[in-house]
Write a structure and sequence with these properties.
The protein is 34% helix and 21% strand. The strands form three sheets. A five-stranded parallel β-sheet has the order 7-2-8-1-9, sandwiched between helices. A four-stranded mixed β-sheet has the order 3-6-4-5, with helices on both faces. Helix 4 (122-131) crosses helix 5 and helix 5 (149-165) packs across helix 6 (174-186). The chain has 252 residues and is α/β, with parallel strands linked by helices. It has one domain (2-237): ComB-like (putative 2-phosphosulfolactate phosphatase, Alpha-Beta Complex), CATH 3.90.1560.
Length: 252
């Protein structure tokens, strides 16, 4: 199998099909998606613009997301994971639009399957992707067209977890190998690293230090969001199966 890691959002060439896409936006979109589904949201629908989210809204839906790290006027939820932990999201469909993360999901639309990854769920996401036995493209959403540290670190963790369970080494591209080494040499102090990176310092200036600390946790949520029919839904790994035979099944 081949694994390619993209440092930022870019359109993938057709010759990479078929593949499984892993979309990362650690601070904070993919962390919020994982958190919201773990808290009982029925689904999260990624939207490119606030206008698209508003147009798709039905009775009972919640609007969530941000522009420039701040809640969009008129939306029910911003982009803090603590908003997505509340009872308010239980059994709700959330229409989400963010500056970078939902664009990352759009960039992956040619993939056979799209999984959502953050530091919070990277181990189980790696296991789910490995179980498909298919080439993988990891998409770091970045920040407005530029690479960011937190997404690269999460990509490195994903690869680290993959290598722990695989029987044969995959072909990892040079950027992926760099991020793997980056994670392996910095994983003892992830919180401080994210506090000091550009996105982290910007969030701290805006009063979101708790968000950065929360999103720095590794492997605390055993849930894999998967895009199905335009909506992200929670999936879990089938129990008591060999990794080669893993299947994903909806949580009921």
């Amino acid at each position: 199998m081949k694994i390619r890691v993209l440092p930022m959002i870019q359109e993938l060439p057709d010759e990479w099909r078929p593949y499984t896409a892993i979309v990362i936006d650690t601070l904070r979109a993919t962390s919020n998606i994982v958190t919201g589904l773990a808290a009982g949201a029925s689904s999260i629908v990624p939207c490119l613009t606030p206008q698209e989210a508003e147009a798709k809204r039905q009775l009972g839906d919640l609007l969530g997301g941000e522009r420039d790290c701040l809640i969009i006027p008129g939306f029910d939820l911003g982009n803090s994971p603590f908003e997505y932990q509340s009872d308010a999201v239980k059994d709700k469909r959330i229409l989400m639009t963010t500056t970078n993360g939902t664009r990352g999901l759009k960039a992956a639309e040619k993939a056979d399957r799209i999984l959502v990854c953050s530091l919070l769920n990277a181990p189980v996401c790696a296991a789910a992707a490995y179980g498909r036995q298919q080439d993988v493209v990891v998409i770091c959403s970045g920040t407005k067209g530029s690479f960011n540290v937190e997404d690269g670190l999460t990509a490195g963790l994903f690869l680290h977890e993959w290598l722990k369970i695989c029987e044969e080494h995959p072909q990892i591209d040079d950027f992926g190998l760099t991020m793997l080494h980056f994670y392996q040499t910095t994983n003892s102090d992830i919180v401080n690293l994210l506090m000091q990176c550009d996105t982290g310092t910007r969030l701290i200036r805006l009063g979101f230090q708790r968000d950065v600390a929360y999103c720095s946790q590794v492997g605390c949520i055993d849930l894999v969001p998967v895009l199905m029919d335009g909506a992200l839904v929670p999936l879990h790994l089938a129990e008591n199966q060999d990794l080669h035979d893993i299947e994903l099944a909806p949580i009921k």
